[in-house]
Amino acid sequence: MKLTILGGGVAGAVAAGYAASKGINDISLIEKDMSLGGLHRDIVIDDFHYDIGAFFFWPYHKLIHVFPGVKDLMVDIEPLYCLSLTEKGNLDLYPSTLKGYMKDWGITDLCLDVFGLVTNRIKMRLSGHKINSVDDEMKYYLGPFYQKTGLRKYIARLYGMSPSDVGLEFSQKRMSFIAERFRTSEILNKLLTLKANRLNQWTTFPISYARPTSGFSSMYSYIGEELKRQNVNLCFGVQIKEILIDEKKIITSDGKVYTYEHLLSSIPITLLCKLSGIPLNIKLQHKSLYSLFYVSNSEIIPKCHVLYNFTERGLWKRITFHSSYYGTEKNKHYFVVEAMPEERHLNDDGVSMLDQDFKDTFANTEFFGNIKKAELIGSHLTPNAYPIYTKDFDTGAIDEVKQFFSRKSIYLVGRQGEFDYLSSSDVAQSAINTINRLLNSAD
Ligand SMILES: Cc1cc2nc3c(=O)[nH]c(=O)nc-3n(C[C@H](O)[C@H](O)[C@H](O)COP(=O)(O)OP(=O)(O)OC[C@H]3O[C@@H](n4cnc5c(N)ncnc54)[C@H](O)[C@@H]3O)c2cc1C
């Protein structure tokens, strides 16, 4: 079987390694950059390596499964501490616990809110209220807790719109654990078996891994070597001019022609359509993300690897304290803040406005002194960071495009390839599922 893969991010790399391990012996991977990794890359400023997200690899991540040797290059984190900053400036276990809620709001509010949750759910059921948006679904499952834990604001910040306009795909893809944990039968079951304290205990992994201290490049050069050892033909620095889908040919800007039997595409779906001359009659929306890079003389929050913003304030959503697991660099602590810019921030002053906005969130907290002194040493804008599914977004149209391509032996994988809200682990799994489907259909 002759398989060609477009894009060498995690999706393309895992697909190539997995396909080779399953005996596909004619594999080419075409990547426009000069190395593998795609969005898995760090930005180096003055010897500090910053990721543009919070990349942790759980033991079940398929990248580790397909390239087990990467584990030796990665940094072990045991356990990973993910915390939330609450509305009242306290710290809680991410995303929220009953204990943390009580610290913020007190026992009386807790009791009233449990009552509010139950009555709200009964009311919605009796009135036959239809769940149309993320807002409806979260209100149903969490009642007053939805607003007061800061979850509603978190979603609004992430999407840059009211959660009442956000389509249900978002909660199905990213928040299905809430529906699973807080459905009525589950609550009753836990109460009857006296496990109510487990209702809001979140699954944590005692062991996780982070990319090597020296950056993603060493990890992906190892992966590149492994792929070459498996006879995968890696084509770097290739610009695709056209894809002739009926002839199964790829024409590159330097006039070369690549033929394929099956094509796996992880490049953005819009680009695939353009290169193959297929109209895409859906408007795809994205939200951009700013990564702000900081150094600091002192540790901001001890024993915290990642901090989520569950307050009503600020446009930042998450801080990743790199030095809490890589150690300090030049005796300095360093961390990255992910901020969701508004239109007014996409100009020269935007970054300093977001810096101020981030620091202001901590006013009246015990961390303000240290945060104020942290120095912003760089930033990076990722346009098209998150796919946006609004309430009226037609996901069926995306499925139709996928089906059309699959009839032409082109399979879509990856975050932008599928236009799906996928984490790096989901992307790797989806690449493997696609290869398995391909192998099954060839049998
Ligand atoms: C800002 C941000 C933060 C994130 N944070 C996290 C996080 O903390 N945890 C997590 O699990 N996930 C996170 N993600 C998601 C994660 O990065 C992605 O799911 C994953 O890296 C996507 O991999 P991919 O292979 O689908 O795409 P990509 O990594 O985008 O790979 C696509 C590849 O295709 C190549 N390409 C594009 N056009 C062409 C062309 N014409 N010809 C040839 N090659 C081409 C690109 O150069 C790229 O290498 C984040 C994403 C973003 C944007």
UniProtKB/TrEMBL annotation:
GO molecular function: flavin adenine dinucleotide binding; UDP-galactopyranose mutase activity
InterPro entries from the UniProt entry: FAD/NAD-bd_sf (IPR036188)
Gene Ontology cellular component annotations, sorted alphabetically: cytosol
Gene3D superfamilies named in the record: FAD/NAD(P)-binding domain
Protein name: NAD(P)-binding protein
